[in-house]
Design brief:
447 residues; globular; AA/rel_permease1; transmembrane helix; AminoAcid_Transporter
């Protein structure tokens, strides 16, 4: 492990504040504006809506701290793919990369493209028939833009980071002090007219988790921090605390600005709340800022997702490996990997809604998250002397909390949305024949 660590060692030049801003930049995306409709639809009340945001933040903080120990112990290129491979072997690691390639990234692209199209239609008063053409156009456009190189994609990310912070700050600051006639009751915590409290909480928790998407990558900072043993846990706790606070406050403002019964299932909640707070012109300007933010989020999925299947191709771990590993001549980007990703995303645009797609990607990725939480216990027992620049404080409480939270998300999804859950599991398991067909092909060629 030492040779591997040295081979892939990263430059340690991140202090606390750069790490904090990176954590917040990784996590805050389009979900902050658009998951309120599905959260309220699942919870049935303002009180349970606010509570599930707080609960999701608490679970995510403990999950992030747990993954951080793996990241500091295994600071190798490849992130969670390499953690799964190191602990469980090549087949589970391949299934993770397969799930990311055919579910996680394409579903993220398609879900946010649908939201982008919905907001454009709302802003420009276009009929609903425009939704699919606009969503497909965005996915294809950003694929073509990313063929120009990582520098272009990176610039879009920088612009969108500023764009998404401006409407968030404006909505929260102005919205809190804007008078309202809506009656908001935060206590006691109930599920409103929904008969089953625990089912409502599970559905709401699953819906919130897309807004926290990106937390699995925060542990990757360990290999680049000057003092991971001191600053890593602090940056994760503080960063995810502020993210949770932002989500709670902006959800409160949405509930404050609009009558509660107008929010469930309403994907235009953010723009309608902005119009209520800032007036028609101001609301439209804020909506444009939200659109730029979503545009950047789609670009982020497009840019990073193609690198996963490219890595499988470069490692000769997938059929048509030479095509997936091929880079464009001048800009050095994985064009074929990106093309396949875009085609899958377009198919998903036709097959599902924003909430369906995001719930499926969250469900599938939490299965692998649970494997990593268990992996911390496995490595503590099997390799007690493994160097860990960061060790979880109050072990084993954080990984146990993360496991309980993850189990609740997975079980409640299986009970509430069995079709979605089994589709996600089925698509993931399709990776097994893909892996073994290629494995046997390589074995024959090596003889």
């Amino acid at each position: 492990m030492n040779d591997e660590t040295d081979k892939f060692s990263l430059k340690r030049d991140l202090g606390f504040f750069p790490a904090l801003s990176t954590v917040m930049g990784l996590v805050i995306g389009g979900g902050v504006f658009f998951k309120i409709s599905s959260v309220t639809q699942a919870t049935g009340s303002a009180s349970l809506t606010i509570f599930v945001w707080l609960l999701a933040g608490f679970i995510t903080i403990n999950a992030g701290l747990t993954i951080a120990e793996l990241a500091s112990a295994l600071p190798v290129a490849g992130g969670i793919y390499k953690y799964i491979e190191y602990i469980y072997g090549k087949v589970p690691a391949f299934l993770l990369a397969w799930a990311q390639s055919v579910i996680y990234y394409p579903a993220g692209i398609s879900a946010l493209s649908i939201i982008f199209a919905t907001q454009v239609m709302n802003l420009c008063n276009l009929p609903s028939t425009w939704q699919i053409p606009i969503a497909i156009s965005l996915a294809v456009f950003l694929y073509l833009v990313n063929l120009l190189g990582a520098k272009v994609g990176g610039r879009i990310q920088s612009i969108s980071l500023i764009a998404k912070l401006i409407p968030i700050v404006l909505i929260i600051v102005v919205g809190i002090f804007t008078p309202t006639s809506n009656n908001i009751s935060l206590f006691p915590i109930t599920s409103g007219s929904h008969p089953n409290f625990w089912s409502s909480m599970g559905g709401g928790l699953l819906a919130t988790m897309f807004a926290f998407d990106g937390w699995m990558n925060v542990g990757n900072l360990a290999g680049e921090m000057k003092k991971p043993e001191k600053d890593l846990s602090k940056s994760i706790i503080v960063g995810l605390f502020f993210i949770t606070l932002i989500y709670v406050l902006i959800s409160f403002v949405f509930i404050k600005a609009l009558p509660f019964d107008l929010i469930p299932g309403n994907q235009n909640t953010a723009s309608e709340a902005a119009i209520r707070i800032f007036g028609n012109i101001g609301g439209k300007i804020v909506t444009i800022g939200i659109l730029i933010s979503v545009f950047g989020s789609v670009n982020g999925y497009t840019m990073t997702g193609s690198r996963v299947s490219y890595t499988l191709g470069a490692d000769d771990e997938i059929v048509f490996a030479k095509h997936f590993a091929k880079l464009t001549k001048h800009t050095r980007v994985p064009a074929f990997a990106g093309l396949i990703q875009t085609i899958i995303a377009i198919a998903m645009i036709f097959m599902g809604s924003f909430d369906y797609l995001t719930d499926m990607l969250v469900f599938v990725m939490w299965i692998f998250s649970m494997m990593m939480f268990v992996g911390v216990f496995i490595l503590r027992r099997s390799e007690p002397d493994l160097k860990r620049p960061y060790k979880i404080n109050f072990y084993p409480i954080p990984p146990i909390i993360a496991l309980i939270g993850g189990a609740y998300i997975i079980i409640s999804t299986l009970l509430r949305q069995p079709g979605l859950a089994f589709m996600g599991i089925g698509i993931t398991l399709l990776g097994l024949p893909v892996y073994y067909i290629h494995y046997l092909h390589k074995k024959r060629l090596s003889k």
